[in-house]
Structure formats: C-alpha cells, structure tokens
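In this section we walk through a basic example: taking a raw amino acid sequence and producing a predicted 3D structure, encoded as discrete structure tokens. The instruction is simple. Fold the sequence below.
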Amino acid sequence: MNIARAYQAYQVNQVNTVSQEKLVTMLYDGALKFITQAINGIEERNLEKKNTNFIKAQKIIAELMGNLNRDVGEIADNLFLLYEFMYDKLVKANVKNDIEGAREVFDLLKDLRDTWVEASGKVQSHNYTTNQHILNFRAE
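The resulting token sequence is shown next.
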C-alpha cells in the first residue's frame, strides 16, 4: 500500500469513527479553508484555484443543508435559509470575483462554527446525548 492510499484510508476511517458533533465541526473547518483558498485564488488571478475551492466550499454547504432535519422546528428552518444564502453568495462570489462577498460568508460560517463548538462542548460536559434524528447524518 502506498503512502497516498494509506493516508486516504486513514482519512476515511477518521470520518467514519468521529462523533456527529465533531463531523459538523470538520465540515465547517473545511468550508472555511476552501473559502480562504478561493479568495487567495482571486487575489493571485488563478481562476482554476478560485473556482475549484469555491465549488468545494459550496459542496460542503450543500451537504450541511441536505443533512439538516427541518422537522425539528424553526431553528433548523432558519439555519437552512442561512446556508442557502451563503451558498448563493459563494456562487456569485465565484462568478464575479467578489472577495467581499466571500469574506461575508467566511465570517458567517466562522460564527456558526464557533457557536457549534461551544454548544457541543456544553452538551458533552453535561452528559447529554445527541439525538441522531436531529442531525440526520448517516455514515455512507
């Protein structure tokens, strides 16, 4: 087994064995990283880098949208609308090379990520359990 395959197997195993709370944090972290790289692509006039990274960030936001259980109430509905806004803003930032729009999404995602980490830390410190039906994530 070569090193690249071993690392890929490690990454797959890490995602499959991580808690739901940590998985959401990892998705936020990935989106933030890709938005930063897309902004760098705009600044460097590297269209491929910009486009590739905006699309990666959009896919992560689409994943977050698709795995939200909107049956749990108004908070989930509002979060979905916020994700939808961010997704659309990233599409426009990609088409128009809009650094400010991308930074706006970055700031929103950063706030969501920090809030998520704080909330999941409180849940864990109180020995609450996460209801699988709320997060609606499935290992595939």
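Looking at the output, two observations stand out. Helices lie at 3-17, 20-43, 47-66, 74-96, 99-125, 132-135. The chain is about 80% helix and 0% strand. In the next section we compare this with other chains.
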